[in-house]
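Help wanted!
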Amino acid sequence: MADILRVNPIDCSGHGVCAELLPELVTLDEWGYPIVDPRPLPPALDRDARRAVAACPALALKLLRS
Amino acid sequence: MTMTLNDPAAGGAARQAASGLPRLLPLVPGVPEDLRAHLARYGRPPYGRPLIDAVRAAGLTGRGGAAFPVHRKLAAVAAARGRKVIVANGAESEPASGKDAVLLRAAPHLVLDGLQLAAEATGATEAHLYLHQGHHPELQRALAERATARLDRLPITLTQAPPRFLAGQETALVSRLGGGPARPTFQPPRVSDRGLGGAPTLVQNVETLAHLALIARYGPRWFRALGTEDEPGSMLVTLHQASHRSQVIEIEIGAPLGSLLDPNAQAQAVLIGGFHGTWLPLPGAAALTLDNQALTAHGAALGAGVIAALPADRCGLAEAARVARYLAAESAGQCGPCLNGLPRIAAALAELAGRGHRKQTRADVERWSGLVTGRGACHHPDGSVRFVRSALTTFAPEISLHARGQCASTNRAPFLPVPGGMPESEDDWT
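Answered by r_m:
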């Protein structure tokens, strides 16, 4: 069962750290808020995804069981 | 007690009246049914029957807007253990909708029967009724009548909803009942898993509960005598005619839209589903039937049953721009894309509704619409964008006219009921 990356848009304040650490899955919109790839997390990006989750200053980025 | 849920003879005289329309609204239009009239028409709430099975067989869907199968929510909460909460949601917050207000005034006992019966079926240990200001005195009166007649098994707590568009949203409701602001919260967890105070919470629209109270009495076969195979039953509709007459009526799901519209009033377009709904051009849309299966093909849905026919002498762009401004102001302001996107979309719509817009404005609306969709904690951005996009399509000829400094309308008076005053402060969410 793969994880999916999700952002809690209420907690997110658009720091953009996730897009820097995980550009493969996260881009920023024109206001600086993350657009997250909704597909299951590729295993190769598992470590980077966990690092991005841990680094989010707003604790808004989450890995959820799909 | 020998009658079964499927026995159409159950209910006696009440069934006579309940076999056709109206099912929920008073038999004498406009005359509210007090407990005596209610009991004469429907009898006492039938406790102790397998309600969840009946609701499943009846195919009842939620009447608050999302049309979710009711039995699934019932079953999810019934399966949980310990403290469980049930909430009747009467905080109808769509300015163009009046059906829950009419129902609460006309048939409060049907709603309260439904709340008690659903509480019994799910094993709820706590029951709430969530309402806008103004309904409290009449509901308190109804509850007092019921206490005297010993109809209720669970005491009901009344809580007032703030006058905000999102106040009735399910997670906002749970937050408000918990003493917080009536703002949406992030899911998961779903409220049916972890809602009020962490307890599994069943939230049902008041009209849904009224239908449920009738299914408990007359059974699924009776319920399915109206409506379509996939969407059985009747529904309340708030109908705004192009003739400016507005009324709440009860219709069979699947009724042709054209059969509701005033043939003597010239209408250019119809808004189906309210401020989160969809504009469709008339007369073409008049041939559609009012069920989600038919409407989905046209990008529309019944929502909470608002239908508004825009008079031919109005400017659809101006109407859409007013609504978009309201929707932007009613954002809870919690999610970046909604907070940033809706005001820009609203401003662009105001520009399109003016004279001679900039060339990139339409493309801007399209891009921002894509950016906000699916990125909120609730569906406010998605619903708002559905409304805006359908306006741009339906009123495309008007956009071309406005670009050349013209407008086809001859009447500038606002048509749709958009609240005039904007929220007074950031803090009026409680």
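OP: Thanks! One thing I noticed: Chain A touches chain B through 14 residues (CB under 8 Å).
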